[in-house]
Amino acid sequence: MTAQTAQRGDLVTVIGLEVHVQLETDTKIFCRCSTEPADDPNENVCPVCLGLPGALPVLNEGAVEAAVKIGKAIDADIPEETRFHRKNYYYPDLPKNFQITQYDEPICQEGELEIAVEGERRDVRIERAHLEEDPGSLQHVGGSIDTADYTLVDYNRAGTPLMEIVTAPDFRSASEVRAFLAELEEVLEYLGVFDAGRDGSLRIDANLSIIESEEADENGEIGVDALEAANRTEVKNISSHKGAEKALAYEETRQKNAIERGRVVEQETRHWDESRGITVSMRSKEEEKDYRYFEEADLPPLRVSHWKDEISIPELPTARRERFQSEYGLSEEAASKLTSTKQVADFYESVAGEFDPDLAATWVADNLLGELNYRDMEITDIADRLEEVTRLVELVAEDEITAKNARETVLRDMLDEGKDPDTIVEEAGLGKTDDDEVQSAVVEAIEENPDAVADYESGDDGAINFLVGQVMQKTGGSADPGDVNQLLRAELED
Ligand SMILES: Nc1ncnc2c1ncn2[C@@H]1O[C@H](COP(=O)(O)OP(=O)(O)OP(=O)(O)O)[C@@H](O)[C@H]1O
Ligand SMILES: [Mg+2]
Ligand SMILES: [Mg+2]
């Protein structure tokens, strides 16, 4: 970082994230209540997740399995043994007045995640990732958190398994944060431990501080002492990538303005108010000692050392992206699109295995994803119809229908009307017309349009397009326009 520009150039933005990921398990982390979205508030609850006195937690094996998968994916150290602690705080979303979480022996330590920023790859360090229970959710009625008339409490969410992933303060801009969140979500979905479509499944606390560039060394690196000494704010209540970007941009400007005016940035917890697009001060930052962490005596320490050998994870997006380029000769852009979710990548590979990889790429990346996107759908919405899509690609590969008809009629009707490709081809008469029929349409078009023929013969090459149009009309659009063009020219030569 060189201090060439005045004032603002002298300040470095430092960001670290705490990302709370809801793990996809059937039941909650310490009881057997369902994690499915419920119709009514306080429906999926029991003495354990309501925190009634005397109720005892039992750890959900599925949550630990998911945590180990995440640990392997971020190349974290998974210790011999992991423990749970009580983090004490008083707030209505948590009826026990403590949250069962992990403290100094979390299930994952010191991992990393590779991201690409402006074409350059680099690692973001993950300090730790630990398991904990989600608190209940609060609904503020008649305003925001600081202005509401009253607040309703819903414990359906209480006890949903969470993985809190804590990054090192390695980000220097909101766009790096965006790249990280996108990559993280992709990885989590590949692992099958997370559903991005679920409301509130990813919630972010964003920590931001502004540090004078004099604190940085010649490589722009800022030392641990300076990072620790800096006053940071922690912005809570961010539930989307967009929200994170906006909240960080707001916070960056707010802190820089304060510094430029000679004011001190308070170390505090702030709340992101999505509807107003601002962060508001909530409280001074609580310190570790405020939480009176102590060991959760109701849960014995858990030996996890052997789990990592027994649990396997699939090929991850970055590796798969690279393999798609080398194995199928795809561009980086196509490979990225085709690996954006595991389902898309798996489907691409099944199609590429049967037909030409390039044709498969056009069909999956451009046609299918394009039409799905237009309809606000995902590949998972047509999971049971992928065989039909493969059949459609086969019809094109075997030259039974034109690519244009396949794309513009068959695929669209498949998605809009739920019919299978063969039925659509038959009903709409899209099967490629046989050569005789095309040939006689060519002869007819020439006989019926002497003016266009005369124009063509006197050197107006454009007149051929009119004749092509006539033939296409006669064959109901099922002839190949390029072939028709050739046939017309050949016929007119004679
Ligand atoms: N100078 C800094 N500027 C911005 N972020 C920082 C800075 N120093 C540390 N951080 C980030 O702050 C976060 C600290 O999270 P951690 O969960 O360890 O502590 P906490 O926020 O105090 O605890 P809690 O879980 O109770 O919120 C990390 O994401 C880290 O990268
Ligand atoms: Mg934290
Ligand atoms: Mg925090």
From TrEMBL:
The EC number of this protein is 6.3.5.-
Q: What reaction is this protein's catalytic activity?
A: L-glutamyl-tRNA(Gln) + L-glutamine + ATP + H2O = L-glutaminyl-tRNA(Gln) + L-glutamate + ADP + phosphate + H(+); L-aspartyl-tRNA(Asn) + L-glutamine + ATP + H2O = L-asparaginyl-tRNA(Asn) + L-glutamate + ADP + phosphate + 2 H(+)
- Top-level taxon of the source organism: Archaea
Boundaries of every Asn/Gln amidotransferase domain copy: 346-492
Cross-referenced Pfam families, in alphabetical order?
A: GatB_N (PF02934), GatB_Yqey (PF02637)
Q: Which InterPro entries match?
A: Asn/Gln-tRNA_amidoTrfase_suB/E, Asn/Gln-tRNA_Trfase_suB/E_cat, Asn/Gln_amidotransferase, Asn/Gln_tRNA_amidoTrase-B-like, GatB, GatB_C_1, GatB_Yqey_C_2, Gln-tRNA_amidoTrfase_suB_CS
Keywords assigned by UniProt?
ATP-binding, Ligase, Nucleotide-binding, Protein biosynthesis, Transferase
Similarity comment: family membership:
Belongs to the GatB/GatE family. GatB subfamily.
Q: What quaternary arrangement does the UniProt entry report?
A: Heterotrimer of A, B and C subunits.
Q: Which HAMAP family match?
A: GatB (MF_00121)
Q: What the protein does?
A: Allows the formation of correctly charged Asn-tRNA(Asn) or Gln-tRNA(Gln) through the transamidation of misacylated Asp-tRNA(Asn) or Glu-tRNA(Gln) in organisms which lack either or both of asparaginyl-tRNA or glutaminyl-tRNA synthetases. The reaction takes place in the presence of glutamine and ATP through an activated phospho-Asp-tRNA(Asn) or phospho-Glu-tRNA(Gln).
User: What protein am I looking at?
Assistant: Aspartyl/glutamyl-tRNA(Asn/Gln) amidotransferase subunit B
Q: Can you name the source organism?
A: Halostagnicola kamekurae
Q: Which gene encodes it?
A: gatB
